[in-house]
Amino acid sequence: MTGSSSGIGAATARLLAERGMRVVVNYLHSAEAAGEVVAGIEAAGGQAIAVRADVRDAAAVDALLGRVRETWGGGVDVLVHNALTPYAIKPFQDMTWDELGGKLDDELRAAFVVTKAVLPAMTDQGWGRLIYLGTGLSRQPRAGMIALGTAKAALAQFARYLAQELGPRGITVNVVEPGPVAETKISQVLDDEQKRRQVAATPLGRLAVPADVANVVAFYAGEDNAFMTGTTAAVNGGMAMY
């Protein structure tokens, strides 16, 4: 699981381990946090390893998969791609092409690299799960978030094309698009008034927490999801309906 040392990624890693999966906790900078996630999983009786890798770097991802083979003797059955690359928060009129184009390149490069790396093993066994974390901002614009929203919209379309191509190989491809999620790094950029407005706009009367998103990812990752591919799950409490 890419980007799983905190927030949604950490919650998902814990839940998948609880459901019997062996989990790779990928991180780039937060070694201590990733180690804590692994320690918590192991204390609960699960299996996990922490592996540092910049998922935009094909060599780093290949090394990560080498570590998986050394540890557990196999490939990756389920890819949860949650890694979030940096992005600018500003209006388009103040943005440079490097800021917008760079985010697009980072987002799709990471998805391309990790997907290419895990596909051979999934294809060989005729079964696999690809799950990409998007954002409601790809459909519902918010001031200053054009770089993230545009990049994640591209990621969602990338996933749909993969779903069409990989279905005959027994591989499902789905996207989970959270709305605002409390207890994450992104939520820290909002002030209290913005959060109150978001809660007021949510029919279920609260913001999501990481566990809400993790539960949806876990469904897509499991055997119960036998006939859903090319779909997008909006985890937003009804804030946006589509």
TrEMBL record:
It holds the Pfam family adh_short_C2. This is SDR family oxidoreductase. Belongs to the short-chain dehydrogenases/reductases (SDR) family. InterPro entries: NAD(P)-bd_dom_sf (IPR036291), SDR (IPR050259), SDR_fam (IPR002347). It comes from the Bacteria. Gene3D superfamilies: NAD(P)-binding Rossmann-like Domain (3.40.50.720).
